[in-house]
Design brief:
Blueprint (H helix, E strand, L loop, with lengths): L1 H28 L7 E2 L4 E3 L5 E10 L10 H13 L15 E9 L8 E8 L10 E8 L6 E8 L5 E5 L2 E5 L4 E10 L12 E6 L4 H15 L9 E5 L2 E5 L8 H10 L1 E2 L6 E5 L4 E4 L4 E2 L2 E5 L2 E12 L10 E12 L3 E5 L5 H10 L4 H14 L2 E2 L1 E4 L1
Parallel strand pairs: 15-23
Antiparallel strand pairs: 1-14, 2-11, 3-4, 3-6, 4-5, 5-10, 6-7, 7-10, 8-9, 11-13, 12-13, 15-16, 17-22, 18-21, 19-20
Helix pairs in contact: 1-3
């Protein structure tokens, strides 16, 4: 009897070990080229978001680089002076030192009344520069334009300059945009609700079936089951994981979310190649694979040259001696170089092979597009 009881206990222990080791096996199956990252770095908690604010304002104190005779700016200055009890004809307003601007800011989640936020300022008129200017008090409104959430005011930092004299000028960065660090004060906050005391929902930055399942496995491995005997975390779809709050965390939601966010997971990345034809930039993941394919790449060189010659008329003719141009066009195509990429080649093999034939980044882009069209590139090709 004792021997049978021993084997029963041993079987239960082995079974439990197998169950709890399944998530680990799933993690190990992932490519170790992908690093372990914190859940908080690839997800966000549903309900925690920022809000966009905009406003229209005036920048004063410019050294003759303002909007000039802009009708909108002149009218704005006249209206502002009227608010101060000064009635003036708009035709008497000079606005060379004033610029009309659009002010934008981002109201962060959990922002409280009195908190400071940065604001961005951009000229909307004919101003040459906002250097040295000061933004007058500007109300910042939400999308419905019906409530003031913040008030902005302060000196503008443009991080550049625009100066010149006598038709020559020197410019660094954009002088018609700038920012006011901590330039706005929050006057009205937006309530941020991220839980109903029972569940918290995590949203993936890059929705993916495998990554969502791995996140739910890691959370379940840590917290197990809820009072109904169900897994604490459940991947609802590729971009959403619902997490039940354990009873002993009911009054400590912040602590629970902080612990979940600190858990590590190995995300599964989609095989993707991103190319930017304007800059020649190519970014490829380690999991990009290609089938057996041969690539022939040759360079076509076109040379256009011109030489000046003298045209001499025949003797006893009435013609004149003139200079003429003789243009010659030469086209030369270098001998094509053939490379063969074996089945299952990784991205490092592709790069080495293309570098071996002297392909430039732009050549590489064209070759990758051709390989994708042929069906041998097993990755998404995205052109920016």
């Amino acid at each position: 009897m004792r021997i049978n009881r021993f084997f029963i206990i041993l079987t239960i222990i082995l079974g439990l070990n197998l169950i709890f080791s399944l998530p680990l096996l799933a993690q190990e199956e992932a490519s170790f080229q992908d690093p372990l990252v914190r859940i908080k770095d690839i997800t966000r908690v549903q309900g925690v978001r920022s809000n966009k604010l905009t406003g229209y304002g005036l920048v004063v104190g410019l050294n003759g680089t303002g909007d000039g005779d802009s009708a909108a700016t002149v009218r704005s200055v006249a209206n502002m002076l009227q608010n101060f009890g000064i009635n003036i004809n708009p035709g008497q307003v000079e606005s060379e030192n004033v610029a009309a601007v659009i002010v934008t800011a981002e109201l962060p989640p959990f922002g409280r009344v009195g908190d400071k936020i940065d604001v961005n300022v951009a000229s909307m008129g004919e101003a040459d520069s906002l250097q040295g200017g000061t933004l007058l008090m500007t109300p910042l409104l939400g999308p419905n334009q019906d409530q003031v959430y913040a008030l902005a005011q302060g000196p503008i930092s443009i991080g550049g300059f625009n100066t010149g004299q006598g038709g020559s000028s020197v410019r660094k960065n954009h002088a018609t945009v700038g920012m006011v660090p901590n330039g706005a004060t929050i006057e009205k906050g937006v309530e941020t609700k991220f839980s109903d005391q029972h569940k918290v929902t995590l949203l993936l930055d890059d929705p993916d079936f495998a990554t969502a399942q791995r996140i739910s496995n890691v959370i379940n491995q840590k917290y197990g089951y809820n009072s109904k005997g169900e897994n604490v975390a459940q991947a609802v779809d590729p971009g959403r994981i619902k997490v039940s709050v354990p009873k002993y965390f009911k009054d400590r939601l912040v602590s629970f979310v902080a612990q979940v966010n600190r858990l590590s997971v190995r995300p599964d990345r989609e095989a993707k190649v991103i190319v930017n034809e304007r800059t020649g930039t190519i970014v490829m993941g380690h999991n990009v694979r290609i089938s057996t394919v041969s690539v022939a790449h040759g360079n076509l060189t076109v040379t256009i040259s011109s030489e000046e010659e003298v045209s001499q008329p025949p003797p006893l003719s009435e013609g004149e001696t003139k200079k003429t141009k003789d243009t010659e066009v030469k086209a030369k195509e270098e001998k094509g170089r053939l490379i063969k990429l074996p089945k299952g080649s990784s991205i490092s093999d592709v790069v080495k092979a293309l570098n071996g034939v002297g392909a430039t980044p732009r050549d590489t882009i064209a070759i990758l597009q051709a390989i994708k069209a042929q069906g041998a590139l097993h990755a998404k090709l995205k052109t920016m």
